[in-house]
Write a structure and sequence with these properties.
Order of helices and strands: EHEEEEHEEHEHEHEE
Shape: rod-shaped
Number of helices: 5
Mean pLDDT: 77
Helix content: 10-25%
Distance between the termini: 19 Å
Number of strands: 11
Length: about 230
């Protein structure tokens, strides 16, 4: 992961309000590329309005329903991109089943498949269930074992959409927040204020070292290995 140096403008410093840092040359900030960190969420239907965070699944969820002798098994799991979606599908699909229909959503990107069911009766309602749940970076595969009774187009839409929605409703989710790793050099007399603000931004694994001159501390270098929430 490449690290870039960033001398923050006044607008950036205002987001990290340490008394005394707004004046020029008081502190040098070092920022790396962002990453994500998760925390437990109370509801699978919750979502964040911030573009820097999203709700996804903490672990795989499975739901099974029997509808007019056909068995529908929905399996939902978290994914990060199209490649991981294909890997998840390969892992959970049942080659003995009549159909393995699916949909996934990663940000604004989504795809779905009816896998032999009439067009629009399986993949689309599965995706609608995902979109309605508020969960992102998730894939739902619905496996159908045909029981001998035709459901019709309306029945298929309700069956696939319903089992997918129930699977996501009962899933354990987490809220993933983006973080950035930061570092800064500050005069020693501002160290207390810097630590106060780092803790207010939920910085983790804070470290420091000292730059001394004639046995006097001139600058303190502080950095957060696990980053601050943004």
């Amino acid at each position: 992961m490449a690290v870039r140096l960033l001398f923050l403008s006044h607008s950036k410093i205002n987001r990290f309000p340490v008394p005394g840092l707004a004046s020029a040359n008081k502190a040098r900030f070092i920022m790396s590329t962002s990453r994500s960190r998760s925390s437990k969420s109370e509801s699978s239907s919750s979502s964040s309005s911030s573009s820097s965070s999203y709700t996804t699944l903490r672990k795989r969820s499975i739901c099974e329903q029997k509808i007019k002798q056909s068995k529908f098994i929905a399996i939902a799991g978290s994914i990060s991109d199209e490649q991981s979606a294909h890997s998840f599908l390969s892992l959970v699909r049942d080659p003995r089943a009549t159909h393995n229909c699916w949909a996934y959503k990663v940000g604004d990107q989504y795809r779905s498949s009816d896998d032999g069911e009439p067009s629009g009766t399986a993949g689309k309602p599965i995706y609608s269930a995902i979109a309605s749940s508020g969960i992102d970076r998730v894939m739902v595969v619905v496996i159908r074992h045909f029981g001998g009774i035709e459901l019709g187009t309306g029945g298929l839409v309700r069956a696939y959409g319903g089992v997918a929605a129930e699977c996501l409703k009962n899933a354990e989710t987490c809220l993933v927040k983006s973080q950035v790793r930061i570092g800064l050099e500050v005069p020693f007399d501002l160290l207390g204020s810097v630590y106060h603000q780092l803790h207010s931004f939920q910085a983790e694994d804070i470290k420091q070292d000292y730059n001394t001159d004639d046995q006097q501390v001139k600058l303190v270098r502080v950095w957060s290995v696990d980053g601050v929430a943004v």
